[in-house]
Structures are given as C-alpha cells and as structure tokens.
Please model this.
Amino acid sequence: MDEIAHAFVTALRLIFTGDKEVLQIAGRTLAIAFSSMAIAAMLFIPLGSLIYFHSFWGKRLLVNIIQTLFSLPTVFVGLLVFITLSKSGPLGGLELLFTPGAMIIGQVILISPIITGLTISSLSGVNQEVRDTAVSLGATRFQTIKTVMLEARYATVTAVLIGFGRAISEVGSAIIVGGNIKGFTRTLTTAMSLETSTGNIELSMALGIILISLALMVSILANRLQQR
Model:
C-alpha cells in the first residue's frame, strides 16, 4: 500500500510540476495513438461499411475472422512489422524501423480489426425501419447508405475511441518496432517497462497512473457517446 500511495504522490508531482521528460513522453504517446486512430478510422470505417452493405459468399466467415482478430497479440504484430521494415524486408528501403512511423504502422494494424468489426456492429444495430423508410421515400442506394451511417454515427465514433484506447495502452509492438529510444520513440507503456526492469517501481506506477487517467477520459467520452 505504501508503494501505491507514493506512486500517486509521485504522479501528481510529475504532472503538476510539469516534468519535462514525462510531458514529452505523454505527448508522444498521445500523438502516436491519435495518428494511428485517425489513419485506421479513414481506412477501416469505409471497409466495415463496405462489408456490411454488400452481400457476398463467405461474409459471415469474414466477420468472424475480424472479430477473432480483436485479440490480436501486440508482440506478433510487432514481429510482422519488424520483419517487413527491417533491412532485409520488403519495405526496408523506407528506413522506418525504430521510428514513430513504425510504431504508428503497428498500432494501425492492431486496431484495424476493432474499428472494422465494431463499425459493422454499429451499422447492424440500426433499426431496419430506418432503411425501409428511406427506400419508401424514394432515396437512392447512396442516400440510404448515408442515412444508415448517420444513424450509427455515435456508435461508430465509439468504435474509433475504443481503437484509440487499444492503441494508447499497447506495449509489445511499440518496443519491438520503436526500440524505446529516449526522446524519440519512448512512450508511457515502454517507459513503464523500462522503469520496472530497473527497479524504479514508484516512477513506473506513476506513469501507469497517468496512462490510466488518459484512458479513463477516453472511456468516459465513449460512454457518453454510447448513451446518445
């Protein structure tokens, strides 16, 4: 209990005294997670919508596979990105390994099934009467799709925020492809891993408290959107 109490005190001190290194780490963590979320949303909300609005052979199997990938191991994703971006890999010439860009790629891959699957679920949750009403009023296929997506907008945004929460809290991929380089690729989760391995438990717990606080704010926002 003493360690937890000291961790809270340390966390508050680091936050309110504006510790430069901690603020840089927190800012970098948010920047990478937001970038990953934005890219994944632009790519996979349309993909989820495309899957939902079209009927094809194997659709149910595809949705099941997407849902299975919700629990995609972060270390496995990191390994795939590492192999792809290494000098001997197909994209080694981009020289992205051990950069924030590599970390963003890893996080996009990690959260893509979540955003795709939850987009499909959010669209499935729209009452069939909405689509029927739009069609009966003479709406085109595009207008009908637009109407359904507008009805599901809050649930879709919630899916994006859940993806953000997954991105900001992951550590396996970040360490493998980012290298945990001080001042460059170190994030809250990788800093926690480092401080724990060096025995600096209080600072590690303080960083964890900061991370949980950020995740809590996202969770509160997601719950408010779900209620709407």
